[in-house]
C-alpha cells in the first residue's frame, strides 16, 4: 500500500502540478447542449441532473488527467439530488480513480462515535453487511474533509488503524469571509499559560499531534489541514505549527486569492500545498470560443493555473 500522502506527492512530482480541480457541478454550470440532451432523455428529474453531472465530469476528467495532482468533488452538489445524486458522486469518484487521479471528497463531516464511523464507511467503505463480511462499498475516496469541532472523538473515527490507507483534511483556517468569527478568536495556549493563541492555532496544534505518528516517506501526514488562500499571513504562521501537514488550499481564483497567496503556506522545500480551483476550471467553457468542448476549455484553464502557481513557487 502506498501512503496516501506519498501518493499525492508523487502525482505532484510527476505532473509538475499542485492543482486540485473541484468537481462542483450545478445545472447553471452545465453547457446548454448537455442540459437539453439530458432533459430529452430523463425529463426534468433528479435522475436527469445526476446523469448530466456524470457526463460533464467524465469529459472534464478525461481532459485534465495527468495535468493536476487531484480532483475534489463537493458532496453537497450531488447530495442535493437525493439517491441519484449520491450515485453520481460515487460514479465520479470511480471515473476519476480509473483515470489515475487522487480524489478528495469535500463533505466537511463532523460527529462522534458510531455516527462518525458510519460517515467513514460511506466515503471509505467497510460498512457491515447482513452476513459476516462488509457490505459493498458505495465509494472509496482517497481523502475526506472533516470538521474538528468535536475533537478527536470525530477526527479519530475517520482514520484507518493503518496510517496512510486514506487521509482527512481537517478544517483549520477556512477561506470564507466570516471564518474569523470563530477561527480568529483568542484562547489560552496550552503550552504557555501566559500567552493566547487563535482557535485556528489551537486546531493546528491538534492536527500536528493527531498526525505525528502517521507520516509517509515524503514526510507528510495523512491528517491534512484546510488552510484558505485568502489568508496568506495566517497560512505562513500555521505552517510553523504544522511542518509535516499537507495543506488543502481553497480560495484561489474565483474567491480572489492570487497564486502567491495560495502557495504562502508551502514548506521550506516548496512542498506541502494542494491548491484548489473549481469554477475557474470547470466553468471555463463559458468563456471559450467553442463552449461545446468544455473539456478542452477546462484543460486550457488548468494549464494557465499550473503556470500561475509554478511562477509563484519559483
SSE diagram, text form:
Layout: H1 4-15, E1 19-23, H2 32-42, H3 46-64, E2 70-73, H4 75-79, H5 82-98, E3 102-109, H6 113-124, E4 143-146, H7 152-158, E5 167-173, H8 180-183, E6 186-189, E7 192-198, H9 199-211, E8 223-227, H10 232-241, E9 247-249, H11 259-262, E10 273-277, H12 279-282, H13 294-313
Parallel strand pairs: 1-2, 1-10, 2-3, 3-4, 4-5, 5-8, 8-9, 9-10
Antiparallel strand pairs: 6-7
Helix pairs in contact: 2-3, 3-5, 3-13, 6-7
Task: Note down, in words, how this protein is organized.
There is one protein chain. The two termini are 33 Å apart. It is built from 13 helices and ten strands. The mean pLDDT is 95. The chain has helices at 4-15, 32-42, 46-64, 75-79, 82-98, 113-124, 152-158, 180-183, 199-211, 232-241, 259-262, 279-282, 294-313, and strands spanning 19-23, 70-73, 102-109, 143-146, 167-173, 186-189, 192-198, 223-227, 247-249, 273-277. The strands form two sheets. An eight-stranded parallel beta barrel has the order 1-2-3-4-5-8-9-10, surrounded by seven helices. A two-stranded antiparallel ribbon has the order 6-7. It is of the alpha/beta class. Helix 2 crosses helix 3. It has one domain: TIM Barrel (Alpha-Beta Barrel). Strand 4, helix 7 (152-158) and strand 5 (167-173) form a beta-alpha-beta unit.
Amino acid at each position: 500500500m502506498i501512503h496516501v500522502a506519498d501518493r499525492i506527492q508523487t502525482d505532484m512530482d510527476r505532473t509538475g502540478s499542485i492543482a486540485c480541480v473541484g468537481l462542483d457541478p450545478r445545472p447553471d454550470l452545465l453547457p446548454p447542449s448537455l442540459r437539453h440532451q439530458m432533459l430529452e432523455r430523463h425529463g426534468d428529474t433528479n435522475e436527469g441532473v445526476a446523469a448530466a453531472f456524470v457526463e460533464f465530469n467524465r469529459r472534464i476528467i478525461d481532459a485534465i488527467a495527468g495535468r493536476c495532482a487531484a480532483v475534489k468533488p463537493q458532496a453537497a452538489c450531488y447530495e442535493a439530488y437525493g439517491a441519484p445524486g449520491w450515485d453520481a458522486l460515487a460514479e465520479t469518484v470511480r471515473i476519476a480513480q480509473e483515470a489515475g487521479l487522487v480524489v478528495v471528497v469535500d463533505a466537511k463531516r463532523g460527529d462522534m462515535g458510531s455516527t462518525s464511523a458510519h460517515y467513514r464507511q460511506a466515503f471509505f467503505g467497510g460498512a457491515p453487511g447482513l452476513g459476516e463480511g462488509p457490505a459493498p462499498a458505495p465509494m472509496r475516496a482517497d481523502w475526506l474533509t472533516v470538521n474538528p469541532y468535536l475533537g478527536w472523538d470525530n477526527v479519530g473515527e475517520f482514520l484507518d488503524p493503518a496510517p496512510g490507507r486514506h487521509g482527512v483534511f481537517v478544517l483549520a483556517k477556512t477561506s470564507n469571509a466570516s471564518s474569523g468569527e470563530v477561527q480568529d478568536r483568542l484562547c489560552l495556549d496550552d503550552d504557555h499559560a501566559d500567552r493566547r493563541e487563535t482557535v485556528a492555532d489551537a486546531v493546528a496544534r491538534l492536527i500536528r499531534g493527531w498526525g505525528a505518528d502517521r507520516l509517509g516517506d515524503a514526510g507528510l501526514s495523512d491528517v491534512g489541514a484546510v488552510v484558505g488562500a485568502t489568508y496568506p499571513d495566517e497560512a505562513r504562521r500555521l505552517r510553523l505549527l504544522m511542518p509535516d501537514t499537507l495543506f488543502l488550499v481553497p480560495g484561489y481564483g474565483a474567491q480572489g486569492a492570487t497564486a502567491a497567496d495560495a502557495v504562502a503556506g508551502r514548506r521550506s522545500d516548496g512542498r506541502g500545498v494542494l491548491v484548489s480551483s473549481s469554477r475557474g476550471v470547470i466553468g471555463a467553457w463559458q468563456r471559450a470560443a467553442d463552449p461545446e468542448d468544455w473539456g478542452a476549455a477546462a484543460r486550457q484553464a488548468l494549464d494557465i493555473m499550473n503556470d500561475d502557481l509554478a511562477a509563484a513557487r519559483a
